[in-house]
Automatic annotation (TrEMBL):
One of its GO terms (molecular function) is isomerase activity. Belongs to the enoyl-CoA hydratase/isomerase family. It comes from the Archaea. Keywords: Isomerase. This is Enoyl-CoA hydratase/isomerase family protein. It comes from Haloferax marinisediminis.
Amino acid sequence: MIRTEDDGSLRVVTIDRPDRRNALRPIDLDALEAAIEDTDAPVVLLRGNGPAFCAGADLDSVADLADPEAFARHGQRVANTIEQSSAVVVAGIDGAARGGGVELALACDVRVATPRATLGEPGVKIGLFGAWGGTVRLPRIVGEGHALEFSLSGRVVDADEALQMGLVSRIVDDPREVATSMAENDHQSLRIIKERLRDQRGDDERLAAEAEGFAALHRANVDDIASSREE
């Protein structure tokens, strides 16, 4: 089950299956995708209810898969929706994130952890691996060395080690405060900055788009910029 709450400029999306450590079935993946797609909020906080952020794919669903490749593609599509959303998506990792839960967090723009957070890719222990985009995003975010050791060992890291690896950017008591603070920033700036930092084209095209984005923001906010100079 996926719950949504709209609080001004912030949408809070909660994975709400605490009895299953917020493990995701195909129906939950569809609901999560819809919760990201149908909001105009500039910032989305993705979190889990209870003692886990997300345990990944529900193993009952995985065991009964008729088409495992389609299931992998399903999770990849949802992760891509998160990554490509016009909103800034913050993963608030409180408690356990495993497998697909880590992969969904990797698709988010910002990952913050509470001191209770633990993260792991245990698929290797049962003859699987993360296939919701993890093999693409993990080395991009933490580097190839950390990505290989983390995935091949199947071990669990705590919040401090996740911060050291670059898997999360901050350790906080309340991820919602981080998302709320971010939502107080200029909304157009948030969107354009995300677009520019996510751009995978060549340098020349990215630099041209950066200049165009800066000019668009300047035109939209010239009065506020002038007022700030006078303060």
